[in-house]
Amino acid sequence: MAKNYYEELGVSRDATADEIKKAYRKLARKYHPDISKETDAEAKMQAINVAYDTLSDSTKKAEYDQMLDHPQGFSNAGQGQHSGFDGSQFYRQSSGDGADFSGFEDLFGRFGSGFGGGQQRSQRQQRSYRGEDQHASIQVDVDIAYHGATQQITLQIPTYNVYGEPEVQRKTLEVKIPKGMKEGQQIRLNGQGQTGINGGENGDLYIEIQYKDTDRIRVEGADVYQTIDVSPWEAGLGQSIELSTPAGQLKVNLPKNAKNGQQLRLKDKGIPNKTAGQLYLIINIVLPPAHSEQEQQAYQQFADAFAAFKPRAS
C-alpha cells in the first residue's frame, strides 16, 4: 500500500511547519542522489520532494487533508482510495522543464556547492543560486575609530559542507576599517559570504565593528566615555589639566568643586562620524597616600581647615 505524504516524511498530521521542514531535511540528506548509497535514492528523493512540496504549502496541505478525510470525493469513477493517491494535482510543475523541487532548493540552496546538481538530474533542471550572506563580529581598539586601519583578521564562520552537515570554516581576510565607524556598524565584503551554487554569485560577508572596553574607556555608538584621575586640589580648585584621550592630547578646565563620578562633555570629540559623537570625561578623584611625616602633617592641616565638614552627616 502506498504511503500518504505524512507517512512519507515520517510525521503526524498535526506536525508543525518546522517539524515538517526538519523531517524533510533529514530525509533529503539521506537520499539525495549525489551522495546517497541507497539503491532507491533517486525514487525516494522524488517521493519526499512531492510530499514536502504539498505539506509545506498551507493551501495545498489543506486541500490534501480534505482529500484524506473524504477520499470518496477525490476518487476516479468511484475507484480511488487515498492510500494510492499520487498527488499530481498538488505538486507544482515548472514551465515545461519538469518538477520544480521548491523544498529541495530551499534546503540545499543554503548549503555548499557540493549540492550544485547531481549527475542524476539533467542540465536543463539545474539552476544557479546566490550564496547566503554571512555575518561576523570583530573587536578593535578605539583608536581605530579616530584614524582608521587595515587589519588582517581570521574568522571562524559557521557554514555547511557538501553533505549538509554544519561545520566551521576558517577564513583569513584583509579588512580596511575606515575612520569614523560607530559601535555596531558593519563593513560589507562583497563575495566573501557563502559560495554560490551552479555558478551563482557568492554571498556577501558583513563584519560588525565592536570596540574593546578597558577599565578606562568604553564606547556607546559614536560616544566615548573615559575615566580620568584627578587630585583633590585639582578638583577643588578647578584647575586646568592636560589629558591623553583617543581624540589626542587635550587641555581641560575642571569646574571648581568637581565631584567624584561627575561627567564632563567635550563636544564633537567622540568618534568622528558623519554626526560626530561626544567625549565624556568621568572624574575619579584620587587621594595621595600619606607615608612621610610631612605628608601626614599636610593631611592634619587639611583636616583642621575643613573641621566643619562632616562626610557621614545624615
TrEMBL record:
<dbReference type="Pfam" id="PF00226">
    <property type="entry name" value="DnaJ"/>
</dbReference>
<dbReference type="GO" id="GO:0051082">
    <property type="term" value="F:unfolded protein binding"/>
</dbReference>
<dbReference type="InterPro" id="IPR036869">
    <property type="entry name" value="J_dom_sf"/>
</dbReference>
<protein>
    <submittedName>
        <fullName>Curved DNA-binding protein</fullName>
    </submittedName>
</protein>
<keyword id="KW-0143">Chaperone</keyword>
<dbReference type="InterPro" id="IPR001623">
    <property type="entry name" value="DnaJ_domain"/>
</dbReference>
<dbReference type="Pfam" id="PF01556">
    <property type="entry name" value="DnaJ_C"/>
</dbReference>
<dbReference type="GO" id="GO:0003677">
    <property type="term" value="F:DNA binding"/>
</dbReference>
<keyword id="KW-0963">Cytoplasm</keyword>
<keyword id="KW-0238">DNA-binding</keyword>
<feature type="domain" description="J">
    <location>
        <begin position="4"/>
        <end position="68"/>
    </location>
</feature>
<dbReference type="InterPro" id="IPR002939">
    <property type="entry name" value="DnaJ_C"/>
</dbReference>
<feature type="region of interest" description="Disordered">
    <location>
        <begin position="114"/>
        <end position="134"/>
    </location>
</feature>
<dbReference type="GO" id="GO:0042026">
    <property type="term" value="P:protein refolding"/>
</dbReference>
<dbReference type="GO" id="GO:0005737">
    <property type="term" value="C:cytoplasm"/>
</dbReference>
<dbReference type="InterPro" id="IPR008971">
    <property type="entry name" value="HSP40/DnaJ_pept-bd"/>
</dbReference>
